Amino acid sequence: MTRDPNSTDELIQRAGAGERQALADLFARHRDRLWRMIHLRLDRRLQGRLDPDDVLQETCLVYMQRFGEFASNPSVPFFLWLRGLAGQKLIDLHRAHLGAKMRDAGREVSLFRGALPQASSVSLAHQLLGRLTTASQAAIRAELQLKVQEALNSMDPMDREVLTLRNFELLNNEETAQVLGITKAAASSRHIRALKRLKDILSGLPGL
């Protein structure tokens, strides 16, 4: 069977052999998925100072420097390794820009494997409102935003993280299980439960 020279595995091999174009193509292939994660998890207090493209650019520099580490010991899927680099860059930037204004560790950094900053209820509520309502009046949207934030904050942190990974970052079940350090069956069960919980909560909110 003919191997696809542009598959991720082939690009990893070519990049590991020193091909610079393959190294660049690998990052470009996953750019949109990384942007989505960064957009969700970038602290909203940094708006105006940083945007996801800034974080992507800095992540790319780290990626170029450290790809050899992955190529010599690919212990996790490539995207999850790359996502971890972006997550660490987010943490570094949060610390550098927020300093003493950072939230307590339990809220600022995920308690789950990978230690990425959590997607805030503000970010998630904004995403959900974009999908679930066409309300255009600022007052109505602001009221709904607060209610959805409260609903999300009432959820179990693990369930909220599963929703973030599956429905907003668009990771598949296997990737989600690896990120959280749980079995695929547990990740699937958590996702189903979280969706039901969120649906039950949102169904009681007027306007959704």
Give a brief outline of the structure.
The chain has 208 residues and is mostly helical. The chain has helices at 8-16, 20-29, 31-41, 52-72, 78-98, 105-108, 121-132, 138-153, 157-168, 173-180, 184-203. It is 69% helix and 0% strand.
Q: What do these coordinates show?
A:
This protein is mostly helical. The chain has 2 domains: 101 residues, Rna Polymerase Sigma Factor, Chain: A, CATH 1.10.1740; 83 residues, Orthogonal Bundle (Arc Repressor Mutant, subunit A). Helices cover 69% and strands 0% of the residues. Helix 1 runs antiparallel to helix 2, helix 1 crosses helix 4 and helix 3 crosses helix 4. The longest helix is centred in the N-terminal third of the chain and has 21 residues. The relative contact order is 0.10.
Following the backbone from N to C, one meets helices and strands in this order, namely: HHHHHHHHHHH
Beta strand %: under 5%
What level of helicity do the residues show?
Answer: 55-70%
Classified by CATH, the class of the largest domain is Mainly Alpha
Strands, count: 0
User: What is the terminal-to-terminal distance?
Assistant: 51 Å
- Name given to the CATH architecture of the largest domain: Orthogonal Bundle
Q: Strand pairing plus helix content: what structural class?
A: mainly alpha
CATH topology of the largest domain: Rna Polymerase Sigma Factor, Chain: A
**Average predicted local confidence, pLDDT:** 83
Bulk shape? globular
Number of helices: 11
Task: Report the uncertain regions.
Answer: 103-115
Please state the CA-atom Rg, rounded to the nearest Å: 19 Å
Largest sheet: none
The number of domains: 2
